[in-house]
Every structure is written in structure tokens, then in C-alpha cells.
Amino acid sequence: MRPYQERYLALLGTMRQEADLSVERVGAEAFVDVVRQASEETRQLVEEGTQLLREELFPLLDDILSASPEELQDLVDFADKLMGGVAQKDSCLSYRIHLALMTYARHKGDRDLLIRELYWTGMGLFNMENMLAPHSIRLYTVRMRMCFSECASHFNTDYDDITTPAIRGYIHRAMGNLALTYPGTDLRAATAKLAALKRSIALLSDPDVRAKTPSLPWDRYLLVSHQERTTMLGYLRSGHAGPDVFAQVLESAQIVQEHQLRQAREQDLPSPVRWQYAYYAALYHSGAMGLSEFLDVLYALSTAIPDDDMGTQSMFSHLGVPAYYMEYSRKMDERELERHAGRISQMIHRMCRWLATAITGDYNEQLMLHLRQTLYVYTEMPGCISFFELLQNVFAARHPTSYARMWRAGQIAGTLCSWLIDDCPEKLVGVLGCKDAGEVAARREELEDFANTAGRLYDAGMVHCFGMVLFSCRGLFEEEYGLLQLHTDCGAELLSRHPSVAMYADIAHGHHCRYDEKGGYPLGFSPRRSPLQPMIYLIAVADALTAATDDIGSLYNPPKTFDLVCRELEAESGGQYAPYVVDLLASPERHRIMRENLGRWTVEAYHDLYRRRSALLE
Question: What is the pTM of this model?
Fold first, then answer.
């Protein structure tokens, strides 16, 4: 590889060390300085990484058809390092490189290279789209399916003409990965997913096919296909699967379980928690195990890995298993469910403590996937923390600067709400059921608290973007901006799933919509149709103020002065922002109060963050 590639990989390693750094008990006052210094170092890493790519990589990708064989091989090696197996260092950058190599292969008629790049381009799309899971929205499924389908199609056209075993291997891997393009959560998708896996498993088991390329790791390919079919346990949980589906999933779960047990005996290690869960879940769904017994197994698996273990199995034990426990426990009636509240509370507290200290390295996206699953299925019950507190703990543990930014947004929103009640209380009529301006004034404290809490929740969907903004040692690509914009849809769905915070879903959904409805996102949502319309517009201004003036958490844009941000708000009054909200800052006295408070709230936000993180470690 070239020196700039080696340097970029080193920068990525440093970024992960910064993100995984568990701040010692330095005291609340010193904590602010520690975080500020770490953020400044991170900004410098991003600047250096971006500059390296602009000077060395992007010109080559833009002129890929002129690349020499040595440059092409360096690109292949670099892309492999960026996205090797489950250890993803920078999968979107790797995707961009593979996309360029695919273009080269098409223009040059290099069939073998094209097959390889079709596979890896599809994998890059999968890794990016996986950030949305378990949300139902998909951005790149069709493109991913096209890549895997074209790659797999070479089995029927010119398979026997291919002489390189590794290229034949990519064809078989693409066949199996077609299943990844079907979520498998409804009958149609599940049917297509099963058909793709059934064909893949049949070919991988065919002695004649194996005999053509005996050097390929056929048993490993076959195991991966069975593992993927085992992941259809989610479809079984939906209750719509027929007996044939149960039989296929159970067969794969049994095969995977036997393999893991055999491997564990040979290596003198315990069987992986993830596949133990899959096996027992398949037994439960097939009727061979009762729900109560199955939940006992899940609880045992949740405590199977010590808290100081940071491996991938620990992620599943601390995060994945509690999510499944809660999802399955919903099948119980209310009285039965209450008996499990103590277990759930224990698992969640253990999870939060582990999150605050977890060092994940290149496996961050796996951690975030398990964590998102927990957030989506969390069940509030007596003795358990509220979903609001759980979400605050998650942000404090895994993305401290976002926690502080939303804490400031809450303070800004509460203050703006108070001023709005003073100036034009009629604008808040309808919010929380207020019937007239008099009731708005009478319920001032309740409305201010609502605005403050809205500020703490409006960016809940950013849990899908932690890895993107924490670990990318460069500016974001177009594909990543597309994913980032979906945080509004993701946040709305996440909050709407939990009764205690569902009332804030519209605010999460609409805080990036324009007041004049001439742009912004998401396009399918209009704040004007929401009873919380004025709160959405108020949070939009609070978000602009807290994000633009953030001198600690901003990685890509330098912070702006409060005065400059206010001028920008005024320029967009009636366009991006609601005029009656922008006007709240027009008076010199309020302007002074807000400017002074913003500085104070930054310090208070990190003090609050420090206290929460300290409590998580107790």
C-alpha cells in the first residue's frame, strides 16, 4: 500500500482509541477540559484524513481508467483493509473504492475483476444500509441486489471458463448474500429470502459443484448460509410463518449449533452466545421448549460473559440477549410480565454500565446494531427505568457530545417556550390540549418542561449514525448524508414505539422541515399537520443554536458565534424558520441573556454528562 493509505489506517486506529477512551474520575470541572481536548484532537484527525484523501485518493478514483496495475493493486489492498470481514474500519470509503474498481473492470472488460468488485460493492452497500436496522426504511436494497445478482449470474453463463478459485468463490458468496437483500419480516420478503438461501445451500452441498473447485472453503460457505437462515427467527417471532419455514430454520439452527459445539470442544472454549440463543429460540418456536424455560435460558445467556469482556460475544450477551428477552416476554400477560421486571431491570442496568466502559475497536457497528435492537423493543414496567432515562444513558455512554448538545437544546427550548408564552401564547394553543391563550399561560411550567424534554429527545434517531460520525476520519460522503437525513424518520419511529415518549415523535420527525415547506427533510412529513407544530418550529431554532455554536462536539464545521447564528436565523425567518420563533431573540435584552446562557449551559451540560456517566459506573 501507499504511504498515505498506511497513514489513513493509522488515523482510523487513533480515532477509535479516542472514541473508546473511558474518561477517568477526573472531577466534573476537569471533565469539560478533557472532553474539549479530546474533541479538538478528533477534529485534527478528521482534517488530516480528509486532506490525505483529497490529495492522494480522490484524484485517482476520478481518473480510475488511467490507473496503473500497481495502483489498482494498492487500491484493492487498501479497500480490503478498510472493510475486512466483520472488522469494519471505514466501509463507506471502501465502497467508494470498489465502485471505482467496478467501473474500471467494466470499461476494460476484466471479467474476473468485475465479479470481485460486484461482490464487494454489494457488501459496502449492505454495511451502510445496516446502520438503519432495525428500522424498516431501506435506501440501497435494490442497488445491493443488482450487484449480488449480477455477480451470481456468472454461475449460469461462464462459470466453467473461470480458472481462479477465489473468483468462483465470490460467485457462491454472492448467491448466498442475495438473502441479505430481503429483510425477511413479511411473507413476500421471507419467501424470497428462503428461496435464495435454499438455492445457495443446494449448490454448496452439490458434490459435482464442489469437485470443480475443491480448494474453496465449501463447509464455511455452507455454514454461513445456514447461519443466515437461522437469522429468520425474527420472521418466526412475527407469527406468520408456516411449518415449512419452521422446519428449514430449525434445520439450520441445529446444524449451526452442532458446528459451534464441536468447535468449542476442539478449542476448549464455550459455545458462542449468539448461536446458543439461535438454537434455543428455534427449539422454542418449534414447540420443543416452553416460553418460561426459554426465558430462563436467555437470562442465563445475558450473564454468561463477564463485564470486563469487550469481545463480540460480550456485545451479544450484554445487548442482544436483553433485547430478545424483552421481545419474547411480551407474549406473557400483565401479571406474568411483572414477575420478570426484576430480571429486565437488572439486565438493563448491567447493559448501561457495560456501555460506559466498552472498548469496541473495529466492531462498533455490531455493538450499535445490538443496542438499537434493545432500544426498539424496550418495555417499560414497574421497577425499570423509563425509556427517556435509557436513551439518555445510551447517549451519555456512546456519544457524549450529542448528549451535551441535546441537553443544551433542552435548555434553549425551555427558554424560548417561556418567551413565546410571554409574547404570543396563542401560538401554543392546541399543544398538550391547551384550548386558549389563557390556558397556555396557566400551564406555563408544564409547557416549558415539555419543550425542555423535547430538546433532550428530538435527535433520538442519531443512534443510527453513531458509528458514522464517531469513527469516520474524514468528511461525509453523499451516501452517508442520505443515511444521516433518515435520522428524523428513525427517531420518530423509535419514540412512537414507547408510550411515555410517543408524544415527542412528531418533533423528532419534523425538526429539519422548512417553515415555508420549500425543502428540508423528510419530504413526506409536514409540521403544519401536527398538533405540535409550534413546538417543532421551536425545536428547529433550538437545534440550529446549539449545533452551530457547539465548540466541542462539531467535527466538520467550525463553531459560529452566537451573533452570527442569530443573523443567519433572521435571514431565514419565514423560510427555514418560523418568524414568531426567530423574533423571540430580537430584543437586545433577550439576545444578551441567550448569549450568556449558551456559554453557561455548555459547562452545565458536561457536568450533567459527567454525573450520569459516573452513575452508570456505580
Answer: 0.92
